[in-house]
Amino acid sequence: MKRRSRTVSASVRAFTLVEVLVVVAIIGILASLSVAGLRIAQIHAREGAVKHEISLLKAAAETFGREMGDFPPSRWSFFRVSGVNAENDGNEILLLCLLSRKKGGPFHEDFEEDRLLNADGDTLPPAALAVVRKELDPSRTSGALFEYTDAWGNPYVYIHHRDYGQKLTYRTAEGTKFEVEAAKSPTGEGHAAPSSFQIWSLGPDGVNQNGEGDDICSWKS
């Protein structure tokens, strides 16, 4: 009887150990699924926030266009100023235009400080700053040229229809330079938003695809 009892006890202990290992494995699987699900939920939440933000930028740029007679330009040459590098121009100009106090502006609430970035480290020379102040009278008077970034820390791309068909240079938060050009219309004829402008985010992957892939765009939202 004693020998049998020991055998039964050993079997029970072995079975319990297997159960514990199975439970641990299940918990590990559930935990990994939860983490993956949380990441997906975070991506979707950021995508939703960026879509909403682009709609606000689009509405503000349209209001600026109605009041000022034209949409914000996307090249500094429009103001006939020099001494400014040719990186992130559209974003920098869009930000200053939307903060213009002319014709009933500003056209957008002041931008969040932690979302402003000077990725290319440029500033307006004194002469150029004087021109911008005269033309726009922006609520931000510093000569530093900030860009407004999306939820992943990269600058939004902005292109006025006047610059469709041309390549513009942008720089990410990490310092990577890339070229952009206006996206084609989904129909394959001409450009999207042919008579106004295009705004887009590089999306979760942080890679510019000119409005394709996971880019989040003003003409699709």
Account of the protein in words:
The structure is a single chain. The protein is an alpha+beta fold and 221 residues long. The protein has one domain (50-217). 40% of the residues lie in helices and 10% in strands. The chain has three helices and seven strands; from the N terminus they run ααβαββββββ. The strands form three sheets. Strands 3-6-7 form a three-stranded antiparallel sheet. A two-stranded antiparallel ribbon has the order 1-2. It has a two-stranded antiparallel sheet with strand order 4-5. A hairpin with a 5-residue loop joins strand 4 (168-171) and strand 5 (177-180). The radius of gyration is 27 Å and the shape is elongated. The mean pLDDT is 88.
Layout of strands and helices, then pairs:
Elements: H1 2-68, H2 89-98, E1 116-117, H3 126-136, E2 147-148, E3 157-160, E4 168-171, E5 177-180, E6 197-201, E7 216-217
